[in-house]
From TrEMBL, chain A:
<feature type="binding site">
    <location>
        <begin position="206"/>
        <end position="210"/>
    </location>
    <ligand>
        <name>GTP</name>
    </ligand>
</feature>
<dbReference type="GO" id="GO:0005737">
    <property type="term" value="C:cytoplasm"/>
</dbReference>
<keyword id="KW-0479">Metal-binding</keyword>
<dbReference type="InterPro" id="IPR001019">
    <property type="entry name" value="Gprotein_alpha_su"/>
</dbReference>
<feature type="compositionally biased region" description="Polar residues">
    <location>
        <begin position="20"/>
        <end position="33"/>
    </location>
</feature>
<keyword id="KW-0547">Nucleotide-binding</keyword>
<keyword id="KW-0342">GTP-binding</keyword>
<feature type="binding site">
    <location>
        <position position="53"/>
    </location>
    <ligand>
        <name>Mg(2+)</name>
    </ligand>
</feature>
<dbReference type="Pfam" id="PF00503">
    <property type="entry name" value="G-alpha"/>
</dbReference>
From TrEMBL, chain B:
<feature type="region of interest" description="Disordered">
    <location>
        <begin position="1"/>
        <end position="34"/>
    </location>
</feature>
<keyword id="KW-1133">Transmembrane helix</keyword>
<feature type="transmembrane region" description="Helical">
    <location>
        <begin position="101"/>
        <end position="123"/>
    </location>
</feature>
<dbReference type="InterPro" id="IPR036305">
    <property type="entry name" value="RGS_sf"/>
</dbReference>
<keyword id="KW-0472">Membrane</keyword>
<feature type="compositionally biased region" description="Low complexity">
    <location>
        <begin position="68"/>
        <end position="77"/>
    </location>
</feature>
<feature type="compositionally biased region" description="Polar residues">
    <location>
        <begin position="1"/>
        <end position="13"/>
    </location>
</feature>
<dbReference type="InterPro" id="IPR044926">
    <property type="entry name" value="RGS_subdomain_2"/>
</dbReference>
<feature type="domain" description="RGS">
    <location>
        <begin position="314"/>
        <end position="483"/>
    </location>
</feature>
Length: 358, 500
């Protein structure tokens, strides 16, 4: 493998996370020579909030590790409650920003407390369950929620507010679903290993997706045997967490382009997972898809299959170097346990088949 | 996939549209200290500012997870103790333990009683009444059949017909022999001496006598003395013997029936005793089980609460302990997230500078007062020059500390917060903007000093983001070894560090 140069920025000031081989080797090194290896390293890549860690947690759960144990989940109580507070605060802030009044006087009082003094410890008091739920059901908050593409809000907002009676209790222990649906920013690189038969182990590597985290991806590029790239279908109307003025789809396409066309991955099986299909289907029922994609037929914008096909073409058009016969595209709802299990099994089979083909 | 057609990517960003996403607190223009209130107070203390809130809350939280307490009962109920001096030493029994002991004793006593009752039931059930009755039935049948053979032969048998005689004799002997065997079996199975004696003197004696008479009768028929034979079997003595035999059997049946009635009574008593034992046991044990179960649930909740609190302080504990902190740093390096750790360290350094700055301010303020008192009787010029001489080292140090504070704050901003920084951390741009705003204000002389809490939210956010990392650290071998072995050589571990 040739020397690797990491370029932190391109001309537009955007981050590059890619390693660029400086040698003239068109295959870009030895990344994909894993046929006889006893360990298959699979990288979960994708922009922030694409669902990499959610899938990772689901895979952990399939294999009876991590969040399967109560002890593990207890440590996440604070995170779940913080998610509730963040969501509540963002919604209240949105009502002010969008100039939507909170209708009920008692809910306005609750909103003030949320902004000024409410902390996660307070949520041990069950009375907050009613207050927060009442706020959630307030017409003003609901109207802001309908316009959630205009501000940052976690996907799990509705779920968390509907489960406040459990969360706001001093005896609360998060369920597996709670943990799966809780948003936590991933930092660094974590991995897990499990047997896949034939004396082989699959090493699944989860990484952070935000721009500053992408520079760390390089640590695995020369040993990777397969890449699973996740992108969120439901982000078509959203901007980045780390850069409010930047469209998430554009970021995903750019990251995908850089990953899939990286010379180190020429011979590596590549899976493109369109995640959050469940949210996407709900979203296009009320939001215009064609508004964001001028090349898309407006008449088809309520048809999820047509929308996904269009997104697929959009992403596949980014592939200029990678052989298309080693690319697989699938849709996923990572919060759905059964769907995740099924899709991940298919992904695993695809990777194993590609390994054998080599 | 290979046949994918090209699609024109005329896509428009939401930023091109009237679309301006907002993030928490951004449009409320809340100062950082206000924004921070959304995060748990406990969390603020535990994972953030060690200089401001560390001592009191940390202490209380450490107490909550004190291992020595974890083994104790969590309620007043379980803490009331009864002390027993035994040969093996002093035993302290809490009410909970006493309840459990009582429950166990009742269970054991109940089981012993049930075992005794079961043995009695077994003995009762092992009597052979049914076998005897069945045997009596068979005996009656065989008796009737052998008698009918004799009767038939006596009235229809031909004299000197040897084959006929042999046939009847053979059948008769078979039936009689089988009957006698059964009678002996019945006699053996009888566990009562009186009925045994009665049965022996009636049925068994009669069967032997009858066998003899019947044999004689059959020989008489064969020898052509049919009339005598018929007279013999119609005689009173013959009928008396028959009745004696049947009477013996009837007595036996009556005896068995009486015994069965007694057995029924015993079974009823046994069942009653069993029911009583079960009811008493349930009455005593069930409340104890419910109580213990409820207590266990509450206890579980207490442990969960303790675990929850323990988890909340763990990261700070790690950061405060030199050995653990070094190991945690290694772990962060392994997971490629060391920039978050370094950021926390840098913020701690900034805070220590703030403390120094505050200390200097206090000293300057105090010295001013002292100086003005001392110099009150000296002329104005000399006083001024004296003041300058005495104040200048402190002021100089204060200025240096403030400059250092700015330098460190600026480093934090450029290295960790700016997206282009070498060690940029994964945080919201709102927090970055808040820090930048403070730095700008200090540069523009709008504020005299950088506030101590300017990185508080950032620190909390970083700690929260690091919870996952810290959790995995706690599961790591290095951490577990450190917790078990006090003297672990961090340097050795560093050397042994395997690249991720």
């Amino acid at each position: 493998m040739g020397n690797i140069v990491v370029s932190p920025h391109d001309k537009e000031g955007q981050h590059h996370m890619m390693a660029t081989p400086t040698s003239n080797n068109p295959n870009g090194g030895s990344a994909a020579t894993a046929k006889n290896k006893s360990e298959i390293t699979v990288l979960l890549l994708g922009a922030g909030e694409s669902g990499k860690s959610t899938l990772f947690k689901q895979v952990q759960f399939f294999h009876g590790v991590g969040i399967t144990h109560d002890q593990e989940r207890i440590e996440l109580i604070e995170i779940v409650r913080l998610n509730v507070l963040e969501n509540a605060k963002n919604l209240v802030a949105a009502t002010q920003h969008l100039n939507i009044p909170i209708e009920q006087p008692e809910n306005r009082e609750t909103a003030k407390l949320i902004i000024n003094s409410l902390n996660t410890n307070d949520l041990e008091d069950p009375s907050w369950s009613k207050r927060l739920y009442s706020l959630w059901k307030d017409a003003g908050i609901q109207k802001a929620y309908e316009n959630r593409e205009k501000f940052q809000l976690y996907d799990s907002t509705e779920y968390l507010f509907e489960n406040l009676d459990r969360i706001c209790s001093d005896k609360y222990v998060p369920t597996v679903v709670d943990v799966i649906r809780t948003r936590t920013k991933t930092i660094g690189i974590t991995d897990m290993k499990f047997d896949v038969g034939d004396g082989k182990q699959l090493r699944l590597v989860d990484v952070g997706g935000q721009r500053n985290e992408r520079r760390k991806w390089i640590h695995f590029f020369n040993t990777v045997d397969a890449v699973v790239f996740l992108t969120s279908l439901s982000e078509f109307d959203l901007n980045l967490y780390e850069d409010n003025g930047y469209w998430r789809v554009k970021e995903s396409l750019r990251v995908f382009n850089e990953v899939v066309n990286n010379a180190l991955f020429y011979k590596v099986p590549f899976v493109l997972l369109f995640n959050k299909r469940d949210l996407f289907e709900k979203k296009i029922a009320t939001k215009s898809f064609s508004k964001y994609f001028s090349g898309f037929n407006e008449a088809e914008e309520k048809n999820p299959v047509a929308c996904i096909e269009y997104m697929t073409k959009l992403f596949l058009n980014e592939i200029t170097e990678h052989p298309l016969d080693t690319v697989s595209v699938k849709t996923l709802s990572a919060i759905d346990h059964d769907n995740s299990k099924q899709v991940f099994e298919e992904v695993k089979q695809f990777i194993m088949t590609q390994q054998h083909r080599e | 996939m290979n046949n994918t057609t090209s699609t024109s990517s005329q896509i428009g960003s939401p930023s091109d549209k009237p679309h301006s996403p907002i993030t928490s607190g951004s449009h409320l223009n809340l100062p950082p200290n206000q924004i921070s209130t959304q995060v748990s107070n406990k969390k603020v203390v535990t994972i953030a500012s060690p200089t401001t809130t560390k001592p009191t809350v940390t202490q209380s939280q450490v107490n909550l997870v004190n291992p020595s307490e974890s083994g104790r009962s969590g309620s007043s109920f379980s803490q009331s103790k009864i002390t027993l001096r035994t040969c093996c030493g002093v035993v302290e029994l809490t009410s909970m333990k006493l309840a459990c002991l009582l429950g166990m004793m009742v269970t054991v006593v109940g089981l012993v009683v049930l075992a005794a009752v079961a043995i009695a039931a077994f003995i009762t059930a092992s009597s052979k009444s049914t076998d005897i009755l069945i045997a009596v039935g068979k005996v009656t049948s065989l008796f009737e059949s052998s008698n009918s053979l004799v009767l038939k032969y006596t009235f229809v048998g031909a004299a000197a017909d040897l084959s006929m005689y042999n046939s009847y004799q053979f059948n008769y002997k078979n039936s009689t022999q089988e009957m006698k065997t059964l009678l002996q079996t019945i006699l053996r199975n009888l566990d009562d001496a009186s009925i045994q004696k009665t049965f022996n003197s009636t049925s068994i004696e009669a069967s032997n006598t009858l066998d003899s008479l019947n044999s004689q009768t059959m020989i008489m028929v064969f020898q052509d003395q049919k009339a005598d034979a018929q007279a013999k079997i119609s005689s009173d003595s013959y009928n008396t013997i028959l009745k004696t035999f049947e009477g013996g059997l009837d007595q036996l049946v009556s005896f068995v029936q009486t015994k069965e009635k007694e057995k029924d009574t015993q079974v009823l008593a046994i069942t009653l005793v069993q029911l009583v034992v079960i009811v008493v046991s349930l009455f005593v044990i069930l409340p104890i089980i419910v109580f213990v179960f409820t207590y266990a649930i509450n206890r579980d909740s207490l442990y969960l609460d303790k675990i929850r609190r323990a988890n909340a302080i763990m990261l700070m504990d790690t950061m405060e302990d030199d050995g653990l902190r070094a190991l945690f740093k290694i772990h962060c390096e392994k997971e490629k997230s060391v920039e978050n750790y370094l950021l926390l360290e840098k913020i701690q350094y900034f805070r220590s500078l703030c403390e120094r700055s505050l200390d200097l301010q206090m000293r300057l303020f105090g010295d001013n007062n002292v100086l003005s008192d001392i110099s009150s009787d000296i002329s104005g010029d000399s006083a001024q020059s004296s003041k300058k001489k005495k104040e200048s080292p402190l002021e100089k140090e204060y200025a240096e500390v403030e400059a250092k504070k700015y330098e460190v704050a600026f480093e934090i901003f450029t290295e960790f917060l700016e997206v282009t920084g070498d060690m940029a951390v994964n945080i919201s741009h709102v927090l970055v903007d808040a820090v930048k705003d403070k730095l700008d204000k200090f540069n523009d002389k709008q504020i005299e000093t950088l506030p101590e809490d300017m990185f508080n939210i950032l620190e909390k956010e970083t700690c929260l983001v690091m919870m996952d990392t810290h959790h995995r650290f706690k599961q790591s071998l290095a951490f577990q070894r450190e917790m078990k072995i006090d003297k672990i050589k961090v340097d050795k571990l560093k050397k042994k560090k395997v690249d991720f």
